[in-house]
C-alpha cells in the first residue's frame, strides 16, 4: 500500500447554509445541496469524498488515506490526480468549500 | 375599511379566528392573503396553533404548499447571504444586513412566513467602490446601465444600482445610507454603525441595532411608493415591535433614537398604523403625542387604502387615485421638486417604451 | 353531480361570463371569460368534466381583453390569475390555448402540496408510465396515441406526485398538440376529437385533443408508478427500449420539475421514492404502431 501523502491546500468541508442530501441508485449516487440548489450525479470517488467530509475527515491526507482503502492496486497511481480533480469539481458545484 | 380587509387583519391578529371561517370566506382569504404576500405567514400561524386538521381539505393543501414556500425562501436567503459574505468578509469593514436578510440571519420573528426579494446591505460609504469591485469579481453584475438610472441610484438613492448574480439570478442592493441624500429628513449613516449587532458565526457581518431596525422598517414603509407590499411590511414592523417591546424602556429608547436620527415622523406613522391595524401593544404613556391626531386626517385614510390595495376586493373605488398620490408623495419625500418632475417624466417614458416591446 | 354537458349553451356562456367552476382532478378552477374560443373549448373538450360544487376554489382565473386599444383592434386577450398576468397578451382567437397554458402555469407555480414534474403520465393495468418532457422528442404525439389506445391519460404535461404516498394524481385534461402532430393523430384514430386550431401561436399551430369519457370518469383515481420512459421519435428508427440509469433519470426529473427547488428535502425524498419504484428506459422509435406495441408489452 502506498504511503505517499497528498497535501495540497489543506482542509475541506461540506458547503454550509444548507443540507447535503444523497441517494444511491444501483451503485450510483445523486446528491442535492439544499442551499446551492442543484442536483448532481457524482462519481464513486466524489461520493466517497462527500461521505468522508460528513464523517469528520476534512484534511486532504485523510481523504487520500480513506480513498486508498477502497481503490484497487492498479488504480492507485491515478488516485492523487483523481482526488485533486474531484475536489476541484465538487468546489465548482458549490458542494464543498475550503474549511 | 371593508369586510375583506378587516378579515385579513383579524386573521393576522388572531390566527385562531381562522378556524371559524366559512368555506366561502376561506376562498376569499386565500386569494387576498396570497396577493398581499401573507399566505405563508397565515399558514405558519395555523401550524403553530395546530389547527390544520380542522381546516377544509382544499384550504389545508394550499396552506401546506405555502409553508414549503416559506421554508424555501429562508433557505435561499441563507445561501445568498453565505455567498455575499464569502465575497466581502475579508474586507476590513462591517457588512450590515438590512430588512429580510437581517431577520433571517439574526433569527428574528419577522422572518417567519415572510417572502424575500433582494438582499439589502449597508456598508460604510468610503468602501463602496471596493465593495462594488469585489462583487463584480464574484459574479455579480450591474443592472440599470442607463446613465440616468446610474445617477439616480448613486446620487439620490444612496446605493449602487441593483446588482444581479450572473448564475444565480439573485439581486443585491448595496446602500451607504438608508434615505436618499436629497431627502428632507437627513439621518446620519455613521450613527447607524454605532449600534450594530453582530450575526453569530459570521465575521464582519451585522444587523442594525434594535431601535434602528424598527426605524428603518418604519422609514422604508412610510416613504414607500409601491404599496403592493405595504401590509406585509407593516406586519414586519408589528413583529419587531412586539419582539423588542418586551424589554421595558424599549419604546423610550426608540423615541430617543428617532429624535437623534430625525426619523420621528416615520416612527409616529409606524406606531399609529401598527396599533390601529394590527393591534400592536404600545403603552399609552409611551405613545408619541402627535399620533392620535392622525386618525382623522386625510393621510390616515390614504394610508389605509395603501395597505388595503394588495387586492381589489379589499380596496375602495377611490383606491387608484389614492395610490397615485401616495406614489408621488414618496418621490416628493425623496427628492426636491425640480428633480421630481423630470424624474417622473423620465420613468413614464421608460415604462411606455418597455410596454411597446 | 352536474357536468359541463348538462349545461345548455346559454347556461354555459352565462356561467363563464360570471365565473364557472370547473373540476379537473384535484383542482377546481374558477374561470371567467367572455371569449368565444374559451366557450367552444369548454363545450367540446370538457363536456364530461364536473362542475365544481365547493365554495373553495383553488384558482381564480380570467381570460379577458385588455382595457386599451387592443380590446377591439387586432383584439388580444390576457390570462390572469388573481391580478397576476404571467404571459404577454395573445390574439383573441387563441383564448382557449391561453386558458390551458394558464391553468398549467397555476399548477406549476402554486400546487406545492405535490411534487410536480414536467412529464406526461398514462396508466394501464394499474401502473403508470411517465414520459418526461425532452423538447422536440415527440412526447405529445405518443401521449395522444397512447390515450387513444387503451391507456388512461392522467396528464400530458404536469405529473402530480403525492408527497406522502408517492402515488400519481390525474387531471385528465385535453392533450396539447401542435403542427404535424395534429394531423398524425387525426389520421391515427377516427375517434380523435379536436378543439379549434389556433394558428400562428408561439408554438405554431396548436390544438387540443378531447380526453376519453372513461379517462375523465376516473379523474379522481390515482395510481402507482411503473416505468419512466424517455421517448425519442426518429424517422425510420426501429423500436428499441434500453435501460437508462436511475441516477441519471433522477437528475433529469429534478431539473425538469416545476417545484423541486421549492420542496427541499421533501421533494428530494419524494422523487427518490418515485425513481426507486420505477423501471427507467430510453425509447427510440420511428412508427407509432411499434411504440404502442412496445408499451403494450411493457404493461402486460
How do the strands and helices of this protein lay out in sequence?
The complex is a heterotrimer of chains A (99), B (357) and C (300).
Chain A lengths: L11 E3 L5 E6 L2 E6 L5 E4 L1 H12 L4 H9 L10 H14 L3 E3 L1
Antiparallel strand pairs in A: 1-5, 2-3, 3-4
Chain B lengths: L2 H11 L9 H13 L3 H10 L8 H32 L6 E4 H7 L13 E4 L5 H10 L2 E3 L4 H10 L2 E7 L5 E5 L13 H5 L3 E2 L6 E3 L2 H13 L7 H15 L5 H11 L3 H15 L12 H4 L3 H11 L10 H16 L2 H20 L1
Parallel strand pairs in B: 1-7, 2-5
Antiparallel strand pairs in B: 1-2, 3-4, 4-5, 6-7
Chain C lengths: L8 H10 L1 E5 L2 E7 L2 H10 L13 E6 L11 E6 L8 E2 L3 H16 L3 E11 L2 E6 L6 H9 L4 E4 L2 E5 L5 E2 L5 E4 L1 H9 L9 E4 L2 E6 L3 H5 L6 E10 L6 E4 L2 H10 L4 H18 L1 E7 L2 H12 L1
Parallel strand pairs in C: 2-3, 7-14, 14-16
Antiparallel strand pairs in C: 1-2, 3-4, 4-5, 6-7, 6-8, 6-9, 9-10, 11-13, 12-13, 15-16
Brief account:
Chain B has 357 residues and is of the alpha/beta class.
Top keywords for this entry?
heterotrimer; B: 357 residues; alpha/beta; Beta Polymerase, domain 2; seven-stranded mixed sheet; 16 helices; 7 strands; C: 300 residues; alpha+beta; Rossmann fold; 2 domains; eight-stranded mixed sheet; five-stranded mixed sheet; globular
Can you tell me about this structure?
- The complex is a heterotrimer of chains A (99), B (357) and C (300).
- Chain A has 99 residues and is α+β, with helices and mostly antiparallel strands.
- Chain A is 35% helix and 22% strand.
- Chain A has one domain.
- Helices cover 57% and strands 8% of the residues of chain B.
- In chain B, a hairpin with a 5-residue loop joins β4 and β5.
- The longest helix of chain B is centred in the first third of the chain and has 32 residues.
- Chain B is globular and about 55 Å long.
- The mean pLDDT of chain B is 85.
- Helices cover 33% and strands 30% of the residues of chain C.
- In chain C, α2 packs across α3, α4 packs parallel to α5 and α7 packs antiparallel against α8.
- The model of chain C has no long low-confidence stretch (mean pLDDT 95).
- Classes of the chains: A alpha+beta (99), B alpha/beta (357), C alpha+beta (300).
- Chains in contact: A-B, A-C, B-C.
- Chains A and C meet through β2, β3 and β4 of A and α7 and α8 of C.
